[in-house]
Design goal:
The structure holds two protein chains of two kinds. Chain A is globular. Chain A is built from 14 helices and four strands. The two termini of chain A are about 20 Å apart. In chain A, the strands form two sheets. In chain A, strands 1-4 form a two-stranded antiparallel sheet. By secondary structure, chain A is mainly α. Chain B is mostly helical. Chain B has a domain of about 210 residues. Chain B is about 75% helix and about 5% strand. Chain B has twelve helices and two strands; from the N terminus they run H-H-H-H-H-E-E-H-H-H-H-H-H-H. Chain B has a two-stranded antiparallel ribbon with strand order 1-2. Chain B is globular, with a radius of gyration of 20 Å. The chains are: A mainly alpha, B mainly alpha. At the A-B interface, helix 6, helix 11 and helix 13 of A face helix 4, helix 10 and helix 12 of B.
């Protein structure tokens, strides 16, 4: 890299800012801002995991919200049976998500292009309908998590500031992990497979296997994000994995810039800010119009696709980048 | 087994099937010819239903409502094609998914703004509101029979248009090699707009046909859209015949699964297990079918011959 580029500056600056959000909101006495940022961090982790396969591997998963749901239910279902230990819940979330990714990835990755998009969507719909129809765990109405994950009293997640830092550390860890993966030989094969699959085959790589492993890693990270989100909201429902949620995750990645390390975090931040503040802003100009904020948000999304292909990350460097 | 119940459910499955076909026909053509993923197809389904509801109210006639709603839906389809879809044909599928996802959000909010949050019912004229006795003891609402009949007629008509007319020839040619069609001097932009708006009309027709039963409501197109995608993937993208077979298949499997799977599973599971598992599995059936078909036959059941 050499020298501090604008992009590195923005990344480090944003992380530094995120690190001091709890004391800042404490001073400003604005706990709801802390809540918004916490939700954003969870979604950002999910977006990073999606970007790992979508941005670096060219695998457009339209069912990533399912992993959020699996992670969240892996916290909620044990809690329903009064098992609150995070040492059970978190490995269960990551493990189940990874296993689901392994099984479905084995089938999905045999397909290409639009078929891949649709089959990932189909599997996500299966998970969605499964939880909708299990009455025991609330069905459509969802499930309230009475107590957050416990870690032998070492960490008290009931305290919002502690929970915030747990989520923040997980996010930073994820960013570091993805950075290492992308720079590794493994990551090169994944990116090479997106650029020219036939050539990677000719070089002797089993692209399918590499992709499958990458898909499983992505699913596992997203499962963790879901477990954290479940802990944060204290309420889980199938609505978390509605197919429109998967669409929103894709948007966060594209808005931030596909195939960029920190882009998904910026994209998620912008998405969450729009979600939280566009509606009050519209009310300010035209009272009562806030309910219809999607009327601006939809066209905004279209404009991003039409004119802002490289996302926020693309604004951070002047050099042109090859289109993936 | 109650045979009349079985036949009624078969007809209900058929009704769902023809509605799915109306949606899937446009979707599969847009997809096959322009290689464009149109998530907003469900919005056109919704818009058609709302137009029909309004104009049925205004004119006090369901038929006039339908006749006014269809050309309007055509215009909305044209607008979506020109503003959103056309600039994106050359882009990748990711961009299609996102942009048309934005169109869904826009239309859902717009409908909310114009028609309010509550659903709109459509009143049927008296001659459609009754029941007909198809056989002794087999009574069906007239309107449901009409839906099936209209759906089958449209399917037949569409098959005729695609097989035997010049525009149909262009559509088939476009589905197998669009570059060649453009090279032969066909105004491909016009063809695309026509197919897109034509698909919109079929989607709108499906929406306004179902609306008297379910009411027109916001987001009505979002769930059935996903099922319509399942249909075109199973049928083979770009194939009208495939869309028809798959739509009927999915309609029947979904309806029969929801009605009879619990009884069927009780044959080899305990009653309680069957009753817990059946709803989940019947909701998943069509997705399981799709995953299985994609695994063994990724190109679908009736893929168009592409050169």
């Amino acid at each position: 890299m050499g020298g501090v580029t604008l992009r590195t500056g923005v990344t480090l600056g944003s992380l530094a800012l995120l690190a001091v959000v709890p004391p800042l909101t404490g001073i400003m006495d604005a706990p709801f801002v802390l809540d918004i940022v916490m939700r954003m961090l969870c979604l950002a982790m999910a977006a990073i995991s999606l970007n790992l396969i979508l941005g670096y591997g060219g695998m457009i998963s339209f069912g990533h919200a399912a992993y959020i749901g699996i992670g969240a239910y892996a916290v909620g279902i044990p809690a329903y049976y009064e098992i609150y230990s995070g040492f059970v819940q978190i490995p269960l979330a990551v493990g189940t998500a990874a296993l689901f990714a392994l099984i479905t990835g084995f089938i999905c990755l045999r397909t290409r292009g639009v078929h891949f998009i649709m089959i990932t969507l189909a599997f996500a719909q299966m998970v969605f309908f499964t939880f909708v129809s299990i009455e025991e765990y609330g069905g459509d109405d969802g499930l309230v998590i009475d107590f957050k994950s416990e870690f032998f009293g070492w960490l008290d997640l009931e305290d919002p500031v502690t929970l915030y830092y747990v989520i923040f550390v997980c996010l930073v860890g994820t960013i570091y992990l993805v950075k290492r993966i992308v720079a590794s030989r493994f990551g090169m094969v994944i990116q090479g497979g997106m650029g020219n699959e036939a050539r990677m085959h000719a070089l002797g790589y089993n692209v399918f296997l590499y992709r499958l492993i990458c898909y499983v890693i992505s699913g596992a990270i997203c499962g963790l994000a879901g477990a954290l989100l479940g802990n944060f909201t204290g309420f889980i429902s199938p609505e978390m994995m509605d197919w429109t949620r998967s669409g929103e995750l894709i948007f966060m990645v594209v808005l931030g810039g596909t195939g960029s390390l920190f882009g998904p975090v910026l994209g998620t931040a912008m998405f969450v800010v729009a979600e939280e503040y566009l509606s009050p802003l519209m009310n300010l100009f035209m009272p009562g119009s806030g309910v219809y904020w999607h009327i601006l948000f939809g066209p905004f999304l279209i404009l991003v696709v039409l004119f802002g292909r490289r996302g926020i990350d693309g604004l951070l460097d002047g050099r042109g980048r090859r289109d993936g | 087994m109650d045979w009349t119940l079985l036949i009624v459910q078969l007809l209900n499955g058929l009704q769902l099937g023809v509605l799915l076909f109306l949606l899937a026909a446009g979707l599969t053509l847009i997809f096959g010819i322009m290689d464009f993923i149109n998530l907003a197809h469900g919005s056109l389904y919704m818009v058609g239903a709302y137009f029909c509801a309004t104009f049925t109210d205004v004119t006090d006639s369901f038929l006039l409502g339908v006749l006014i709603a269809l050309p309007l839906t055509f215009l909305v389809g044209m607008a979506v094609e020109i503003v959103v879809a056309r600039p994106l044909y050359a882009r990748d599928h990711l961009d299609h998914v996102l942009a048309t996802f934005g169109v869904i959000l826009f239309f859902d909010a717009l409908v909310h703004l114009v028609w309010g949050p509550e659903g709109k019912a459509i009143a049927l004229p008296p001659f459609l509101d009754g029941q007909v006795e198809l056989a002794s003891g087999l009574v069906l609402p007239t309107y449901r029979v009409l839906i099936i009949a209209v759906g089958l007629l449209i399917a037949l008509g569409l098959y005729g248009v695609v097989s035997w007319t010049r525009i149909g020839m262009l559509i088939r040619a476009g589905a197998s090699n669009r570059r060649m069609v453009a090279a032969l001097g066909v105004n491909i932009d016009l063809l695309f707009t026509f197919v897109f708006a034509g698909g919109a009309v079929l989607a709108g027709l499906a929406g306004l046909l179902i609306a008297p039963i379910t009411e027109a409501n916001i987001g009505m197109g979002n769930d059935i859209l996903i099922v319509a995608f399942v249909v075109i993937i199973i049928g083979g993208i770009g194939s009208i015949r495939g869309a028809f077979v798959a739509a009927i298949l999915i309609g029947l499997i979904d309806t029969m699964g929801r009605s009879f799977l619990d009884d069927f599973m009780k044959l080899f599971l305990s009653d309680q297990n069957a009753e817990t598992a059946a709803p989940a599995i019947s909701a998943m059936l069509i997705y399981i079918l799709m995953a299985a078909i994609l695994y063994f036959r990724p190109q679908g059941l009736f893929p168009p011959r592409v050169r």
